[in-house]
Backbone:
């Protein structure tokens, strides 16, 4: 383990994910501070003992003393923040993030940072349908995956440190992917699934449906409760990869449609068998 | 309550659902028997005290003494069974089922039955991704919906008795729908969702996906583990209603596709907001 708990960690953006990071790292004995916009979030986190210090404004001391800074806000704010405050970060510090789409942003942030400060991107694949530090919990990391997303500019040390962070937080698996491969995976596993759930929810306005619903519909649309600002940004940031995956899904759905239309029971069953076989591999694995 | 626990109830088909019925009704003090093909299912159910009597063959005594018969097998076997054994059922008995698609089968069964025996159809919207009486549990009825599906031939008494059965089993809500309206609802809420999950699972053969999956993909594809014999039959039984709902979904998905392709953030957010608003109404309500 490169990551020792004598490091000072600053969380920028204390929402559901930032708050859950703060809880986990404080529990493990790290000194954790936070900068976030809302007074009530800082007050809550201090009262709960999730953070040791916090501020709602840019705080030169908190930024300057941090060994690791975790950026847990929207991608477009991330860039602005680094442009304006990058000079306050101390030499040797490591910057990481939780952004769900990597693409250009990783390269852009790396290009923006002053010499001696390394940005190593990561994607913690954890979340809930609720928001805010008040809903944060380390339980979201149980059984979940954490992906480190380095470029050629990253050092082996930073990759190892960032992986250690994933294990320390309590993720079930930590892996390493290039930004391009990460975005391809995520377009399928995350953005496409949200596209489908939202489309399904918008496909019928029948007011009686709620009374006759079963668990299959509930499961399929759990993620249809969606933060439209965050997700429209993620969709557009990963637009090309997402369109390719939407094409692939539509092709598969059209095949199913044709098999129903043509009463092609053989094709239908073939797809169902393939689906069943593949799905079995996706069950959650717990650590340890 | 029309349904008193001095009634003798016969379950035909002791799988997950039939077994869960047997458990709930035995708990409530009913005399419950079962006919099912597998020796081990009967042995298990007797050993566990879920049923009082059982047989793997047509048993004239069990059929003849039953006040209520619950048919919990595939639709196409249902018709054959009634043709061959309808004459063994006692006058005044009520026959019900758990079939997921109603359409013609309700009218066909009603036409097949001897005078004095009434078939009142029902759809318990409960299930799990596992099969067999060994996995049966009354927990699947918690928070779930039960639909009584009468035709004009049914008596008010039978509709009430069948509703009582739903409440007795422990469902959160019991409602009444015509076969046609039931099938329209179910095409959207159940068959379409399974079509989508299977299509998504078949859309990518990338072997690395399992390592990077998150909960949104797991939730969306939970039902992609599917019994291909049962579901291909349900799809084809409800073919016309299903194709209409598949069309509606495709139209909605195409709209989302266009908004991503055209970078139409306004339309994308509009869909996401509608989706979020509607989905909030579908959360599970617990009874009491």
Residues:
């Amino acid at each position: 383990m490169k990551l020792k708990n004598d490091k000072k960690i600053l969380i920028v953006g204390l929402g559901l994910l930032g708050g859950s990071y703060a809880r986990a790292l404080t529990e493990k004995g790290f000194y954790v501070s936070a900068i976030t916009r809302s007074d009530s979030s800082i007050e809550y986190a201090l009262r709960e003992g999730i953070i040791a210090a916090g501020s709602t404004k840019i705080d030169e001391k908190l930024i300057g003393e941090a060994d690791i800074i975790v950026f847990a806000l929207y991608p477009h704010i991330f860039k602005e923040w680094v442009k304006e405050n990058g000079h306050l970060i101390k030499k040797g510090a490591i910057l990481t993030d939780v952004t769900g789409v990597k693409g250009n942003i990783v390269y852009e942030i790396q290009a923006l940072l002053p010499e001696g400060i390394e940005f190593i991107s990561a994607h913690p694949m954890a979340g809930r349908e609720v928001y805010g530090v008040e809903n944060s919990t380390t339980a979201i990391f149980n059984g979940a995956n954490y992906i480190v997303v380095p470029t050629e500019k990253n050092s082996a040390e930073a990759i190892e440190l960032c992986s250690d962070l994933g294990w320390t937080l309590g993720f079930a698996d930590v892996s390493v992917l290039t930004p391009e491969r990460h975005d391809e995976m995520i377009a399928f596993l995350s953005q496409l699934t949200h596209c489908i759930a939202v489309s399904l929810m918008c496909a019928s306005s029948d007011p009686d449906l709620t009374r006759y619903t079963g668990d299959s519909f509930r499961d399929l649309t759990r993620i249809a409760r969606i933060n439209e600002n965050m997700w429209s940004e993620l969709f557009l940031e990963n637009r090309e990869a997402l369109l390719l995956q939407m094409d692939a899904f539509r092709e598969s759905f059209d095949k199913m449609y044709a098999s129903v239309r043509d009463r092609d029971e053989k094709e239908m069953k073939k797809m169902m068998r393939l689906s069943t076989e593949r799905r079995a591999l996706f069950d959650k694995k717990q650590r340890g």
